[in-house]
Structure formats: structure tokens, C-alpha cells
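Fold this sequence, please.
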Amino acid sequence: MEQDSEILIISDESEKSTDQVLKYLLYYDAKFIRINGSDIIEKIEIIFDEKEEIQLVCKDVELNFNKVKSSWYRRGKINLLPVGHYQKMNGDEMQFYGQYLEHYGKELKGILTFIHNSLKSRKQINSIHDNDISKLSQLSLAKSCGLKIPFTIFSNNIENILKQYEPNIFIVKAINFHVFRLNVNNCKWICGANSSELIDNEIDFQKYSGKNILISCFQKYVAKKIEIRTFFLLGKFYSMAIFSQQNEKTKIDFRHYDFERPNRTVPFKLPVVIEKRIERLMRKLKLSSGSLDIIYTLDGEYIFLEVNPIGQFDWLARSCNYPIEKQIAKELIDGIK
């Protein structure tokens, strides 16, 4: 079947916010194709002649990149790796196959980079390359844009932190946003994501003292009135206040969800000066959308924590009745006009 779509969406099969955006694209009778990270690209051709052509075949659908006028990278990837039969392999075969995939993955990196870069000349909402933006870059650029940030140390030297900064309270975070997936016991998956841990006394620090720990992000804990989740989309702001401080489970990080006593959430409007600084930051990061975490302190200050290019927004849209999915669909359709 030949592809007649003009909108390309790269996502994961279980990504619910993508499903909601597609409902609006169907409502507006827009032509699109969705590629999930679990989809295997069966055939690929990149042709250099009078004009460049990129053609993929996935699930018997032909995708010609010359027909793509706008794209949205939500999550996932374009999967060029062949289907493996590792379920039936013994230990030696698995070791060889892992080395083969590592080598072949390096071969494919240049191809995938070229494919994703080809989308830059058209309307694009985020790119897979946005996943490479580290918290270090975010904090440095946020500060240069006039946003306040918490006192932060990236280190594996627990002794020095204990010596110099006691009795400060620290939040320990991962350096990046990656979710990990481990394949064990014949394709049974273990999944996990980053979370924050409070280290608030010498005993907590001493647990790690003298050990070879990985470099981690230590961020000074700042007491807050509320937490703010903001979804940014091409210059538009959708913000929500999260009343997490009345619940000990969510007091440090609202993402330690309490499903029995959910935090109260309401629509929120950031000051114009803060929105302008955030917009400046997003331009410097070259992000067209992202989910930002901000805290409003007891002293009335707004503190930037981080921006996740692929952060959740569907619950924000539901809680505050924001038409985010509809707006994403409209932006994608505007790109093909």
C-alpha cells in the first residue's frame, strides 16, 4: 500500500497522548502515518540522484519522506534493527548476538541521524535528538536566561559534599531522563524511571560514604508552596498548580503519586516575565515543546527545575481542561498547508 500521508508521527505503541492527537487528526480528515518504536522497518532506501529520496516500508505501508510536510516526535524511535531470535539462543549465542547488535547499531546511527535531520526543513514538533539534552545544559542555559535555579552539584564525591555543605538538605536525582528496560528470564521485562530521593542528614550521606557511586545530581531542597507543571508548545503555555505539600508522600516530589489521596490540581498562570524567560530558554535549547517542572517558594520566587522534551501532558490537559492534543493536531495540519 502506498503512503499518501503528509504528517509523520514517531511514538510508542502504548503512548496514550499520541492516540488523543490522532483522534483530532482523523476528525480534521488529515493524512498521517504513525511509526511506533516496536514497529520493524522492513525495507529502507536512501537514494542520491537529481533529488534525495528516503523511502521506508513498515507493515506493508510505503513511507516517502518527500511527501512528509510536518512531523511530531513524541517518543520511541525508527527501528531499523532486524528481528532477532534471541529467545531460542544459548548463552554463547546471546553474547555474540549482543556484540553484533552493538556493532550494527553503530552502523545505523549515521543513517538514523540523516533520516531525522531530513525533517528539520519542514514543520517539526521536537526531534529524537532532544533526548540528548542534559540537565547540566538546561540549568546553565536557564540561569543565563534569568531563571532562578536551585543550588546544584554534579558529583561522585560524597565526602566533599558532606564536609562542605552540611547541614544542607539535598535532593538526589539522575542526570538525565531515560527510562531503563532490562530483558531478563526469556523476555520478561523490568522497567524503571528516574525518581528523587531526599538526603537530609549525615546518616543518609554516610550510607554512601567511601563507596564508588555513580556521578549523580545533588540539588538543594527548597521549601515550596506549590509545584507547577507547565507544558510549552510553540510559544503557548499550559500551566497547572499542584498542591503537593499537604501530603508527606508527595511533599518532596509530586511524582511519588498518592493514588488514594491525589494532589489537588488547578489551572495556573505564570507571570509574563517568567514565561518570556522560559520561551528564551526553549529557543536556546531548540525545543518546540516540553514539560517543565517549576516550584513556587515560600518567599514567592519561581525556581526552574527541569524541562523534559517528552514529558507527560495528558493528565495536565484533563485536570485543567486544556485543549493540548487538539492544538498539537492543528499545528501539524498548519504545517502541510
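The chain has a mean pLDDT of 81. The domain at 134-148+223-308 is CATH 3.30.470.20 (D-amino Acid Aminotransferase; Chain A, domain 1).
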